[in-house]
Each structure stands twice: as C-alpha cells, then as structure tokens.
Amino acid sequence: MNRQSKTFSGAIMSRAIWESFVKMDPRGLVRNPVMFVVEIGFVITLLLTIDPNLFGGHYGPSERSYNLIVTIILLITVLFGNFAEAVAEGRGKAQAESLRKTKTDLLANKKSDSGAYEQVPASSLHRDDLVRVIAGEMIPADGEVIEGLGSVDESAITGESAPVIRGAGGDFSSVTGGTKLLSDELIIRITVDPGESFLDKMINLVEGASRQKTPNELALSVLLAGLTLIFLIVVVTLEPMAHYVHGTIDVATLIALLVCLIPTTIGALLSAIGIAGMDRVIRFNVIAKSGKAVEAAGDINTLILDKTGTITIGNRLASEFLPVGSHSEDELVEIAVISSLFDETPEGRSVVDLGKDKGVTIARESYTSAENVEFSADTRVSGLNLADGTIIRKGAVDAIKKLVQEKGAKVPGDLDSKTEHIATEGGTPLAVMKGTDIYGLIYLKDIVKPGMRERFAELRKMGIKTVMCTGDNRLTAATIASEAGVDDFIAEAKPEDKMRLIRTEQEQGKLVAMSGDGTNDAPALAQADVGLAMNSGTAAAKEAGNMIDLDSDPTKLIEVVSIGKQLLITRGAITTFSIANDVAKYFAIIPAIFLAVIPSLGALNIMHLTSWHSAILSALIFNAIIIPLLIPLAMKGVKYRPMSATGMLMRNLFIFGLGGVITPFIGIKLIDLLLTVLGIANI
Amino acid sequence: MTIAGSIGILAVIALILIIGIPLGDYLYYLFRGEPSRMDKVFHPLEKWLFRAVGADPSVKMDWKAYLRALIMVNFAMMIFAYLVFRLQGVLPLNPSHIKGMPWDLAFNTAASFITNTNWQNYAGEQSMSYLGQMLGITYLQFTSAATGFVAAIAFVRGLIANRSESIGNFWVDFIRIHTRLLLPLAFVFSLILIGLGVPQTLLGPETVHTLQGVLQTISRGPVASLEAIKQLGTNGGGYYNANSAHPFENPSAISNVLEMLAMGIVSTALVWTFGRFIKNRKQAVVLYVFLTAILIIGAFIIYSNEAGGNPILQHVLGIHGSNMEGKEERFGPAMSSVFAAITTAFTTGAVNSMHDSYMPMGGFIPLLFMMFNLIFGGKGVGLLNILMFLIITVFLSGLMVGRTPEIFGKKIEAREIKLATIAMLAHPFIILVPAAIALVTKVGTSSILNPGLHGLTEVLYAYTSAAANNGSAFAGLNGNTVFYNVTLGLVMLIGRYVSLIAMFAIAGSLAKKAVIPPSAGTLRTDTFAFGGVFVAVFVIVGALTFFPALAIGPIGEQLQMWAHLLH
User: A610-638 in b/e burial notation, b at 16+ Cβ within 10 A?
Assistant: First the structure.
C-alpha cells in the first residue's frame, strides 16, 4: 500500500472539488442536519434574490444584491463542508483503486467433484472450495493452506517486500487473496465467499463505503442537531420579539444569523475527522474492521502484551560471563567467543559482541581449519572441533555436564550454584567447555526492547495499565516485568489465563486491548475490546480480532490507542471552537440587526464594524472561511501528548476554547476592513 | 451600597451554606435507608401511611416504575387541587364567601402549584378560601417540593448503581421526605413565624376602626403554616398577593433573613447529599464554590444597581438615593437585592419587593438566574439541572481529553446525550416560543403594562419564571386572562415534566451501566478547573440562547438609559 500518499495531491483535489458539488444533493446532505439547514437557508435566500419581496415587504434593488451576496456565501459554506469530506474520502478512494487492480482478472485452479483441477474465475470461488496454486501464480482468494509449504510475496497487502513462509498446519497456514506464491505448490481451502474477502473488506474500509457513525460521533451528532434546533428557535422567535419593539429583520439576515450560530464548523468537518482518523490507522498499516474499534482503542484501560517479541526482542542475549572453578573471566571470554565464532544465531552473535566489549576480538580466519558443530535439539550444544582435535562447546548446562562426566572429568564445584543464581534472576545459563574442562557460564538475558520502558511510562500517564503475559516462570517474569516497567504480569500463562484476565478486567468496567496471532489466541482476541491480530497469524486469529496489523508488530497497539484518542480530541476541540465562535458573532450581528430601533445597542458593537450590512456579511464570511482553514487540522488531528486528563483539558480549552472566543473577533474585524476597502460594506 | 448592606448579603449566603452542609449529611443518612434512632418515632406513622396508600416499601423500582408512580401521584393531586379551586365556593372554611375559580385560573393555579412554580394569577386574600389555601396551596407546597426532591435522589441512585435496574422506592422516598424533613422543619418554622407575628387562624377577616376613624378590613387566616413551607419547599406562592412584601407574611428584618435561609438551606443541602452519595465531597465543594460565587456576584450586581438608584432621576430631577420604588422600608435595598437573587437562584419565587421596578440590570439578574435554573436551583430539580449540564460539560470536555466521556464512572453515550439535549432544549423552547406568540398577538400584548423594551422583559420574565418553575412575578403583566392562564400553565407543566422524564430515562440508562474505576486518563470532575469549564458551558449555552432576547430586553433598556444620560 502506498503509505506516502499526500494530504492534498492534485488529482485528489480536483476530484474533491467536483465531489463538493455532487454532495449538494439534499438526499445525502440530510444526514448532516447542521449543513442541511445551511442548504435550506441557501435555497430561501436564492429565492429572495430572485424576488426580494417573496415573503412580503417593500424592498428595493439594493436588497437584491445583499441577498445575492448572502446566497453566495451560504453556497460556499455548504461547498466547503462537502469539500472537507471529499478530500478525506479522496485518499481512501485512491488507495482502494490500486487495491482493486490486484483483484481483477484472477484465475483459479479449482478442484472439481471428479478430483481434477479446472480453471475458473477467482470471483466464482466459495467457502470450502479447494484450489491449487503453483509458484508464480497469484493466490485467488483468502484461505488456509492444507497441503504444501511455500514462500509468498504479500507486498500487495502489507507493503513489505520480504516474502513470508506459508504452509499447512500451525500458525502460518493462512493466505490472502491477491498475494503471489513465489515458490513450491500449495493446496488451499478457500475460507470466504465472494465479496467477503480480506481485500474486499479493505477496499470497503479505505473507501469509507462501509463507514458507520461511531458511538461518540453519533452522540456528538445528536448534540449538534440539538444545538441547531435551539438556535433555530432563537432565530425564529427573534423576529416577533423584534416586531414588538418596532424592529423588522429581513429574512436573509435572519438566515445569516442562524447559519452563524449553528455549529457549522464542526458540522462541516465531523465526517472528515472520522474518515481521516480511520485513514491514519490504515497508514499505520493497521486495518481496523470498524471505526468503533478505533474509538474503543482511545478508551482502553488495560493493555495485555505478550512478552516475547513485544516487550523483549524475542531472543536472549549474552549479558555476562561467569567463570567457574579456577578459571579467570578472561579465559572464559576467549573460549566463549571461539565457541561462537561461526554461530550465526542471535545468541551466538551476542556472545561475540559481548566479548568484543570485554576487549576480546578473535578473527574467524585463524579458525578456518576448525570444524563447526551446529546446534541440534538432540545434543543441545554447539561449538568447534579444532584442527588439533580439541573440542570447544557451549550449550545447556546439563548437556555440557554430561559431556564432561562421560569423559571422566570433574565438574567444578561452583557450577551448580552459579547456574542456579542465573536461573533465579530469570536468565538462561549456557555452559562453556574446552576439552574436558568447564570454563564457566554465559548469562543469557531477555532484553527489553529499547524505549519500551518510556512507552509504558507514557501509557501509565494516559491511565493505561499494562499487563505482560509470558510462559516463563514467575521469577523470570518478575525480572522482565520490573525491567520493562509494566504494571503487572502473568507468568506461566496459558491461553485461558489471558481470557480470565480479560473477563475480570471487563467485569470491573474496564476496556481491554490485546494482540495475538495464534489460533489459541482467537477467543481472547474476540473477547477483548480491541483485539489486534497479526497479519502473519492464523485465519482464526484474524477473524477474531477487530484490527489486523499488516506489519505484524504487536507494539502498534500503543499507536492505535493514540490515534483513537486523537480522533476524539479533534472532534471535541473543533466543537468547542465552533461554539465559542458564537460569542463574537453575537457581538457583530445583534447590534447590527437592532441598529435602527435601539441605536444604543451600538455600544455592543465593540469591533466597530463599518455598517450593519458589513457586520452581518463579515460574520457570515468568517463562518464559511474557517471551514477550509481547519481542514488540515481535521485531517491531521489535534496533537496528542500523554499527560493528565485535567492538564490536557486545560491545554485544549486554552487553545480551542479561548482561541475560539478571540479568533473570530480578529477575523471578523479583518474581513470587515477588507469589505470596507472593496466598497461592499455599504451596499 | 453600604458596608453594612454588603456584609448583610454575604452573611445571609454564608449562613445558608453553614446550615446546608449538616442538613445534607442528615439527608444522606435519611435516603440511604439505614436504621437510625429516629425510626422509633417515625416508623409507626410511616407504616400506617404505607398501608393507607397500599404500597410495599420493600419493592425495588426501576426508573419506569418509579416515574410512573411519581407521575400518577402528581396527576391525581393536580386534579384534586383543580377541583378544590373550582368548588371552594360551596366547600367549608370559607368565611369571606369567596367564589369558585373560573376554569382557566383554576388550571393555571393547579399547574402552578403541582409543579412547584407557584406562579399566582390570583390574589390570595381575595380569591382563595381558607380551605383552598390549606388543601390546594399548602398541601401542594409540601408534595411538589417532595416530588422534586425524590426525583433528584432517584437520579443520584441511578448514577451510583452498578449494573442494576433499581433506583429506589418512590413511596418510601416520598413519604420519608415528608415525615422526616418537610413536616418537622415546617412545623418548627411556622411556630417561629407565629412568634414573629405572622397570623395563624381560621377566624374570618377582622374589621377594625383605624385611628383616622375609618373602617378597615384586615384579612388573615392560616398564614404561618403556608409561609413556612412556601420558603422551605422553594415554592414561593404567597398567602397574600403582595407575597413576602406583605407585613403578615414577612413582618420584620429578622423574619426576612429567616425566610431567605429557609429558601436556601435544603437545595444547598442536597448538593452536599449528592457529594456524599457519590463518595466525593470535593465534588460538592467545587460546585459550592462556583455556584456560591455566581450567587454572590448576582446579588451584588442587583444591589449596586438598586442602591445606585435611577441615574435619570438623579441627572434630570436631582433626586438622589437608592431605587426604593417597589421596595419595603423595613428591608431596604441590600436585603431586597439578596432576596431577589436567592428567590430566583433557588427558584422559590417569593418576592419581598417588586422586580418590575428594579433598574434594568437589577431585574436582569433574577431573569438570568431563572434562565440558568441551576444556581443551586429549586428542590431537587436544581440538582437535576446541575447534573444535566454536568453531563453536557463532561461530554464536551471528555472528548477533548480523548476518551469516551464518563460522568462519575458511567459512560455517556448517544442515548444519554439525546435525553440531556431534550432536557436542555425544552427550557429555551418553552420560554422563547410562547413569549414570541404573546408579543405578536393582541391577547398577549393587551396585558402588558409598559410598552417597549420593558414590556418585552415583562413577558419574557413571565414565561421564564413559569418555565423555570420559579413563580416570581415581574409584575406589570396582567396574567389572569385565558391566554396567559393557559399558556403559562402549559409552560409550567412542560418545564417541570419533560426534563424530569428525560432525566429519569438517563438515570435508568446510567443505572444499567457498569461503574468504570477512575484512572489517570479519567477526566476528574471534582477539580476547580473542571468547575470553571462547567460554569463556562452553562453560561455560554445559556447566554447564547437568550442573548438576542435579553439584548432587546433589559440589556437594551439599560443601554438606552445610559445613552439618554449622554444626550
């Protein structure tokens, strides 16, 4: 997928402009009550431009040009709103199109009832059909490998160019339609019906076709509709009240007042914010099956993370050398490094690296004559057979001990105590021997990924508790837990333990997020409020989770939480801004409307706007212009920083609340000056 | 303004808080339903009452059952009061031979007293028999206060419930609030008022020869018993037309202070009770600080305007001094101003001076307080309005901290917002729409005493008072016409029950939800920062809704007054 798509590319822009007009269709716009009211206002002022006396009165031609200007500004207001939505959708559409290209014209070798394979269009495949794919062919649909093993290029979906291994059985059996088999041959059982495939879902998602309003968006829409109704009442009742004090307000001005007061800014940007939020998730290479899941991510209280691969880097690395018997550390380091010279495993490399840190560097060239002994599950040791017949081995302590004892040599007395010491600290000991002599132990340690501690601290600041899950014993688990700074851990965890933890947390009203890839993770993934399945995982896991990480990086959960929060903050911030704007608009419009009957209300004209026409038009223009100005913010989202809730509230209120009160005073004044210079102020 | 006057205002408000807190504790224990020493005294009576209404006190009610019982009881009482007002001419205890009320006035009065509004389109001493005063007025002043009270308690129970349906038992709450709070308090307060000179008798009016030698009829009756609950229940419907300005209702400076305390203590106590229920006293303290600050600011704006007097009189006629038109000498500007602030903040509606005669900005504050309808507010409903705006505030600010908003551990979702919006929407709707209709129709405008901006304020005030279930009259508007009787009656009923039903539905919805334990990411509502946001939201939403109307009402009038000075 194209991760680098820009916010405003030329093609997206021109299509968005076209879409802005298409979206004027009232049947679509009615779903957005705020903007629908603006559109109705536009129609009424349009009619009043044609006949200014449509609703009675004796208005002259100057009224017509005033009505026309109001009409145009209202039209632009609606268009700006539509444009915001179209731009947000545009990026998704471009991505969907490139995805669609991978989907077309696929053929499949389907096993017929007679047992022979026949070519059929991939679009005709159904659940439980069997297909055969050979190297170089595209996998026709989502399914599970039931026979064979091969490497698959999944870059069309994940953007990752390195091929992955897919084979029958185990956790790596699921394949995705639209990916390419590079080697060997696979028999695949199709797991989806037409139109339900992962690719189809993804296309729908990025296109926004299956977009439903999220719970918070729904609640906010209700509030905005309510505010719109309140202001409708305010404006409709204002005319009769004004009438009583011998004032008249023309319809165009009433509509202008209404449009200024109703929360058009957030009304126009609300759906764009939602779409852009989903888009941000997708650009993180995470597929959220619904917007609800993204929103739920922002509410997470508890995060369950697997230790291996998520918190630690997955491999244990050498961290210390412990000589035994009469040997010195220097001796031990030298032998240990030699034993690992040709060991390409991460453990082996880490021994060489640690040796280097201790000042021991041994060139491979000096041991080219030695024979390399690979690690095997049988012997549980590896090492070198030197040219002179000396053997150098490192490996599991009991295996080495056995080797030495077989040769009739003695095991140093302090070996067992030191081994135990490493084990109690949660490490893994490797013994090192030369000939028949045990030199000492290599202390292998689980290494916490760099930066994890800080991230967990951040999460704590957000109010999220992290729980580490590991199959290790309690001691090892406790060591890693305190090193990584997680809040809690489960040692010797079985899949049921995870499930139980999720249930207890949820019973307390908490929302839980977890990641997983195996089939035995699937129930927990389904139970969790946010279940991030790894794309490398099984079909069952991917089906159970409500998000799929295409990069198979479990730490992404943390980013997803931020995006979920950002989504809500952006909505709240622009709503606050929108409502706060009304204060200044009142100060512009109210004195203007009643200037004729209550001249002393001019005291409220604190902006000293040129004329009453100019006051109303300036407020209305500001109201329209602020929409495109805020599009970038709606798309990018308000910056989220982990801090206390009250601190964040104060910060955002300062920027968007106070800013929302002050900005329009400045903006309206500037527009008024401009209108005055252009000579429109006194039409 | 004088120093003595200012200290007096602050002292009254301080006393309300000082009495309110321990009373709030008492209410907390009362509504938790735990055994107490008082049980011995009250149990036999309560048991008898439960049997009389056929209620089982052990039943747990969900919000619908609770609401059904509440509405049913209210409806029955309203019909009863309506019949009493209609038939009082033929019923006993009518020494002055007062006739039955016409249908529209009887409807208005019944709607007014069942809703705790106590708007009075009748003059008590002229059109209400003793039986009407006791069975219609005094009775409903107890029950309407109790109704608001139990509604608030039921809501708070819904708020703290954890995945439960029950919000208590209406009959238990309703009867206990009478037996253990309102009746004892009102009894004691009545005796104090009698001691201070308020009449309490069933004898007919007294005719006396005055020193000038003319005959004067002095009307009297069961005044003290009505006066006590009128203030304690934030009712405000006076025995006499002049309400608490009448020397028989409010004879002295001391009774004036006591009546203000009576208006304030129970609503203030309820905020504290709420804090106890949610196990967060700091929440109550935060609300106290901001609401009290607004109350004090409001009282002082009125005071400064009234004590400052009319600038035009000073300028043009050289008449200096306070604006004493419509005020009683025995209270003076300070105690009149604070009374006006308290009666509208706590939505009592009793008046000891004529708000119509206040300076424009002096009259603006009572109007604004009723538009807010939550500066402590009336019995129970004040707290409900506070909670309604807390929900809106929590929603807006909750979004801004990046979490689905929560109020006291309960998620606020579309359903709650929809209901809160309905409750919020009802208030401006039933003020602005009928006011606009009244201002463009002949039946509406013909009742208005003063033309122009002040006349507009009179109509606006009337509907605001009815919608807020306040009942204070701006005067200057003849409300006893079929048009005003019916529209004001309807506004009072909608103002009371629409938001009440909406809030009950919210309570039911919240009760079912699980309580989410607070974490570092939870927006705390018991901080002063949040309190400030709460004030900003209700002031801005309130101001935005009513600003245009206020601009051509009191604000415009005040600006006109200043503008005339400049010319």
Answer: bbbbbbbbbbbbbbbbbbbebbebbbebb
Identify the three-state secondary structure at position B193.
helix
Q: Is residue B351 part of a domain?
A: yes
**CB < 8 Å from A in window 414-453 of B:** 414, 416-418, 421-422, 424-425, 428-429, 432-433, 435-437, 439-440, 445, 452-453
Nearest to B475 by CA among B172, B64, B129, B119: B119
Spatial contact of B200 and B223, defined as CB atoms under 8 Å apart = yes
CA pair distance A432, A340, nearest whole angstrom? 10
Taking each helix axis from N to C end, the angle separating B103-114 and B63-87, rounded to the nearest 10 degrees, works out to: 140
Q: B460 to chain A nearest CA, in Å?
A: 10
pLDDT tens-digit profile of B260-278? Answer: 999 999 999 999 999 999 9
* Identity of the residue numbered B535: V
Give the separation between CA B135 and CA B110, rounded to whole angstroms: 11
Substitution target in B399, B522, B567 with the highest count of A β-carbons within 10 Å is: B399
Alpha helices in A316-472 (DSSP H): 329-339, 346-357, 397-406, 415-424, 452-461
Distance, in angstroms, between B288 CA and closest chain A CA?
A: 20
Taking the CA of residue B393 and the nearest CA in chain A, the distance in Å comes to: 11
DSSP state letters, B376-445: S-STTHHHHHHHHHHHHHHHHHHHHTTS--EETTEE--HHHHHHHHHHHHHHHHHHHHHHHHHHHSHHHH
Cα dihedral A461, A463, A464, A466 sign: positive
Continuous H helices in A472-555? 474-484, 495-507, 522-527, 539-544
Q: Which domains does chain A have, with CATH numbers?
A: 10-96+206-283+562-678 (no CATH), 300-311+449-550 (3.40.50.1000), 315-448 (3.40.1110.10)
How far is it, in rounded angstroms, from Cα A431 to Cα A415?
9
**Is residue B275 domain-shared with residue B289, that is, in the same domain?**
no
- pLDDT tens digits for A546-572? 888 887 777 788 888 888 899 999 999
Residues B220 and B338 in one domain: no
- How is residue B68 written in tokens? 């059904």
> Do A233 and B429 contact (CB within 8 A), yes or no?
yes
If you average pLDDT over residues A518-530, what whole number do you get?
84
For the entire predicted model, the pTM comes to 0.86
B519 touches chain A (CB under 8 A): yes
Q: What is the DSSP letter of A530?
A: E
Structure tokens at A530: 């946010």
Comparing C-alpha atoms, which of A215, A572, A566 is closest to residue B392? A572
The reply to whether B344 and B272 lie within a common domain is: no
Q: Closest residue of B to A217, CA-based?
A: B414
Nearest to A210 by CA among A159, A141, A278, A143: A278
Residues B246 and B391 in one domain: no
B280, B314, B334 - which closes a domain: B280
ipTM of the complex: 0.92
HEC states along A483-497?
HHCCCEEECCCCHHH
- Do B518 and B441 have their domain in common? yes
SS3 A82: helix
pLDDT digits 0-9 by tens, B344-368 = 999 888 999 999 899 999 999 999 9
pLDDT at B63: 95
* Record: contact B527-A646, CB cut-off 8 A: yes
Domain region containing B400: 282-562
Residue environment code for B392-408, b if the CB has 16+ CB neighbours within 10 A, otherwise e: bbbbbbbbbbbbbbbbb
How many domains, in total, are found in chain B?
2
Helix B63-87 to helix B139-160 angle, to the nearest 10 degrees?
170
Cβ neighbours of residue A453 closer than 8 Å, sequence gap 6 or more: A483, A484, A485
Instruction: Tell me, yes or no, whether B122 and B271 share the same domain.
Output: yes
| Cβ atoms < 10 Å from Cβ of B329 | 6
- Between chain A and chain B, the number of residue pairs with CB atoms below 8 A apart is 219
